[in-house]
Every structure is written in C-alpha cells, then in structure tokens.
C-alpha cells in the first residue's frame, strides 16, 4: 500500500519532470533541433531508488546519470536491466574495474586521461566481454579551472582520441566530448556561453583532424537552454527534476 507521502512524492516528481521535458522540447523546436538527436539525461545522484523507479515506471525514463561508483553499483543491481546508466562523476583509475563490471553501464562521460581509458577497456574486456562497448565522452576542462577535472592540453587530448581509434580498443567507444561549464558563465545572460563555445571548437577540430563524428554533452539545470542553442546533444539535469540534493 502506498502511503500519502509516497503518493505526493510521486506527483511532485512527475510534475517537475514533465515541466523540464516540456521546456526541453520547446527549446529544441526553437533552435531547430530534432528530438531524436537530443537526450535529456536524468541525473539521479544521491536520490533514492524509489525516485528513480517512479520516473522509470510512470514516465518511461531509461537513461540515468550517476556520480559515485558505489552508489551506481548498488542502484544498477536494484533497477531493471534495461536502464542505460551513465557515469558522470569524477573518475578514478582504480574504480574503472568496478564500473566495467556493471553489465548495463551504457556510458562513461568523464574520461580525462589515457590511463583511465586504457583501464576501462582492459576491465570491460575482462569482466563483460560480450556486452556492447561502453560509450565514452572525453571530459574537457574548458574553463581551465585547476580544481576541475578534464583534459587541459591538446597533446593529452590527441593521445586519448588516438587510443580510442586504435584497433586494440574494442570494449569502449569514443562517443563525444563533455564539459561542466564555469559557474559564472552559467549565471550571466551573455549571448554565448564561452565554455560551450570552446567545446564546440574542440569538436570541430577533432572531427576534421580524425574524420570522425562526435556528440556533445553540456548543459545542466542552470544553463541547459543555452547549451541546446549552442548545439549540445545531451543535457544533464538533476536539481530541476528532483529538487535540492542532500550533501554527500
Ligand atoms: C550533478 C551533475 C549534474 C546535474 O546538475 P544539476 O545542477 O543538478 O542539474 C550534471 N552534470 C554533472 C557532471 C553533475 O555532476
């Protein structure tokens, strides 16, 4: 039996999700983006499985983004197997094997060193060799903030891309580029977000140099409309759907 508070959480969450989805769709139309080339990734870190199940059951959500490896491992064990899990947190080399074991891990969006890419490939080959390749985004530190993760230099970036394109790599696949915008840019009303523009430039440069096609993951609750305008393929939304997060 559902208690009153479960029922009110359910309606609250559905209303919030539908509102974000509506804005997302309106915005896509406004900027001439096709719905099937844009993903609304629901970022569920620090939120209970019961919340995820509401969106899974009642709204058909299948893509969820998580930041903490242990939390993702346990949620993956509790939710249905057709969930597409995206890891979007700070990646540590020694955690790559725990991620690689998750059969339905769909994407890792925060590859920022060659070492981590290698480790993930090795671990996937070892633990889940028959599952589809994990889609990977290279995280770029577009704002050059030293405390922030992400590739900062062109040489490092080239080495990671070239690793993905080499024949030895079979269990992970280069999908695109990801950035977390600088806070200040997300909260002013400039016509262009500089971090997003920088990520678009990297995409164009790499596509030209390697003759490949890359997707972009940029835009969160505070700045996703701008990201859609500037050409993102994925926005990552947490607070706007779930409300404030507890501190970890
Ligand atoms: C938490 C997080 C998000 C979601 O941020 P909100 O402001 O809650 O929408 C998106 N991307 C990354 C990398 C995150 O860590």
Give structural notes.
Helix content is 45%, strand content 16%. The protein contains 10 helices and 8 strands. The two termini are 30 Å apart. The mean pLDDT is 95. Pyridoxal-5'-phosphate is lined by residues 43, 45, 67, 88, 180, 220-222, 236-240.
Topology:
Layout: H1 4-30, E1 39-43, H2 49-59, E2 63-66, H3 69-78, E3 84-87, H4 96-100, E4 105-111, H5 114-127, E5 134-139, H6 154-165, E6 172-178, H7 183-187, H8 194-210, E7 215-217, H9 224-229, E8 234-237, H10 239-242
Helix pairs in contact: 1-2
Indicate the overall shape. Answer: globular
Q: Helix and strand string, N-terminal first?
A: HEHEHEHEHEHEHHEHEH
From the helix content, strand content and strand pairing, which structural class follows?
alpha/beta
* Straight-line N-to-C gap: 30 Å
Strand order of the largest sheet: 7-6-5-4-3-2-1-8
Percent of sequence in beta strands: 15-25%
How many DSSP E strands?
8
The major pleated sheet works out as: 8 strands, parallel
Radius of gyration: 18 Å
Number of helices: 10
Q: Give the names of the bound compounds.
A: pyridoxal-5'-phosphate
Helix content class: 40-55%
- Look at the structure and give the mean pLDDT: 95
Low-confidence stretches: none
In short:
The protein is α/β, with parallel strands linked by helices and 248 residues long. The chain is 45% helix and 16% strand.
């Amino acid at each position: 039996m559902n208690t009153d508070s479960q029922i009110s959480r359910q309606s609250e969450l559905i209303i919030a999700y539908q509102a974000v989805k509506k804005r997302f769709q309106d915005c896509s139309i406004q900027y001439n983006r096709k719905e099937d080339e844009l993903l609304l990734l629901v970022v569920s870190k620090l939120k209970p499985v019961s919340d995820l199940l509401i969106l899974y059951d009642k709204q058909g959500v299948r893509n969820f983004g998580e930041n903490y490896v242990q939390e993702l491992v346990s949620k993956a064990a509790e939710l249905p197997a057709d969930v597409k899990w995206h890891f979007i947190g700070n990646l540590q080399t020694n955690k790559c094997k725990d991620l690689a074991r998750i059969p339905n891990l769909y994407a890792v969006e925060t590859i920022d060193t060659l070492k981590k890419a290698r480790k993930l490939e090795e671990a996937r080959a070892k633990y889940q060799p028959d599952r589809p390749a994990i889609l990977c985004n290279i995280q770029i530190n577009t704002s050059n903030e030293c405390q922030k993760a992400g590739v900062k230099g062109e040489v490092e970036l080239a080495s990671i891309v070239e690793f993905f394109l080499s024949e030895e790599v079979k269990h992970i696949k280069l999908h695109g580029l990801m950035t977390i915008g600088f806070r200040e840019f997300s909260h002013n009303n400039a016509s262009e977000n500089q971090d997003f523009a920088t990520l678009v430039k990297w995409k164009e440069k790499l596509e030209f140099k390697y003759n490949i096609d890359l997707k972009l993951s940029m835009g969160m609750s505070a700045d996703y409309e701008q990201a859609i305008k500037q050409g993102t393929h994925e926005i990552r939304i947490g607070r706007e759907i779930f409300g404030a997060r507890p501190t970890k």
